[in-house]
Automatic annotation (TrEMBL):
InterPro entries: Plipid/glycerol_acylTrfase. Keywords: Acyltransferase, Transferase. This is Lysophospholipid acyltransferase family protein. Residues 33-52 have a biased composition (Low complexity). PANTHER family: MONOACYLGLYCEROL_DIACYLGLYCEROL O-ACYLTRANSFERASE (PTHR22753:SF14), TRANSMEMBRANE PROTEIN 68 (PTHR22753). It comes from Pseudokineococcus basanitobsidens. Residues 172-291 form the Phospholipid/glycerol acyltransferase domain. The keyword Zinc does not apply. It comes from the Bacteria.
Length: 385
């Protein structure tokens, strides 16, 4: 049953919490549900209409953007002072104004501005949804993924191979090698699954607790669908029919020395395999080439890492030597290869509780990824082209 999170005094609500649901079960937790699917859901639907354009509406130059911006400022200010009703009205008015904009010079900018205004209105009013693990579908689709796409498309020029190996419905576990010093490979894989895999599904990433505990970053991670790398969360998501991504090497993989690039580290005890077996979902091996060269780690500032409570503070050829400029990732060219799925639904009952079988299957997945990495590296002619 849905319930609204309590909000701090004087602060906007954190949205309406909806339970995880199996795909096809309907409701806000199902794929495609939420604000985009709520065609007749009041202010949210009216605001969403502003993201489209009605032909023949008569406005050809996008000149309504300034008026809409003024309306946004005034109405949101009233909403903060008077409560959520004014904010909902802001979204409604902006949506109706956006629906009058037509194609022409400035129209794309106008539509984006109006979508952003309507989204802000819903944030203030609490008229949006998060699932029980904190995933905010609208914010992820309209803001967070948009911020990552320039990196994915233009900077790293990611090429996805084997996209048809991800099921279009039902749960699946994507298991990948880990690299890049800061775990940027997980973010790029999220974009790849959303944009370039048929069906446009979201990848729910399992991350270390240090990510979710970080100020600001932790909240954004939750909103993007990232959750704790624990068997409970993994099995809950898989049982709900979600795509789940896991990087079993952990810190050993993402933070390894540059001389060890593309050499897979140990996969631990194979907990991800046990979760897939219990849910009866396929395991899709994922090999990523290109991320090792983003921040080549050649050393570590161990005293600073201990002071900050971090597993490491990397030294790269450009950081900390060049200061903030050294934080710019190198524009390596990436390939993400999805391998043949490993079926788990045919395994005998109780297999998930047999450590020997679980470790053996984990080793098979690891070997599959390592073989794909070797093949991709042999095909690669240049790191940056």
């Amino acid at each position: 049953m849905s319930s609204e999170r309590p909000s701090a005094a004087g602060a906007p609500s954190d949205g309406v919490v909806v339970p995880l649901r199996r795909p096809g079960a309907g409701g806000p937790g199902a794929p495609g549900a939420g604000p985009r699917a709520a065609a007749d859901a009041g202010p949210r639907a009216t605001a969403q209409a502003g993201s489209g354009v009605q032909a023949g509406s008569g406005v050809q130059d996008g000149s309504g953007v300034q008026d809409a911006a003024v309306a946004l400022a005034r109405l949101l200010a009233r909403g903060v002072v008077r409560g959520t009703a004014g904010s909902a009205r802001a979204a409604d008015v902006l949506g109706r104004r956006g629906a009058r904009l037509a194609t022409g010079p400035g129209a794309d900018l106008a539509r984006r501005a109006l979508r952003t205004g309507a989204l802000l209105g819903r944030r203030v009013s609490g008229d949006y949804e998060v699932d029980e693990l904190g995933f905010d579908r609208e914010l992820t689709e309209e803001v967070l993924l948009d911020l990552l796409r320039p990196l994915y498309r233009r900077w790293f020029r990611v090429e996805l191979r084997g996209a048809d190996r991800v099921p279009r419905g039902g749960g699946a576990l994507l298991v990948s090698n880990h690299s890049g010093t800061v775990g940027i490979d997980a973010l790029m894989t999220m974009v790849a699954v959303r944009d370039d895999v048929p069906g446009g599904r979201h990848l729910r990433v399992l991350a270390a607790d240090i990510v979710l505990a970080a100020p600001v970053l932790g909240d954004l991670a939750r909103r993007a669908g990232i959750t704790l790398a624990s068997p409970d969360d993994a099995e809950r998501l898989l049982a709900a029919g979600e795509l789940v991504g896991v990087w079993p090497e952990g810190y050993k993989g993402v933070g390894k020395h540059f001389r060890d690039r593309y050499r897979l580290q140990r996969f631990g005890r194979g907990g991800f395999v046990a979760s897939a077996l219990r849910a009866g979902v396929p395991i899709v091996p994922v090999a990523v080439v290109g991320a090792e060269e983003v921040y080549p780690r050649i050393g570590d500032i161990a005293p600073l890492a201990r002071l900050l409570g971090l597993p490491y503070v990397p030294v790269t050829p450009f950081f900390p030597l060049l200061g903030p400029l050294g934080l710019v990732p190198l524009p390596s060219r990436w390939v993400v290869q999805l391998g043949e799925p490993v079926r788990t639904d045919l395994a005998p009952a109780g297999t998930a509780d047999d450590p020997a079988v679980v470790l053996d299957l984990a080793d098979q997945v690891r070997e599959s990824i390592q073989e794909s990495l070797h093949a991709l590296l042999e095909q690669r002619t240049s790191v940056f082209r």
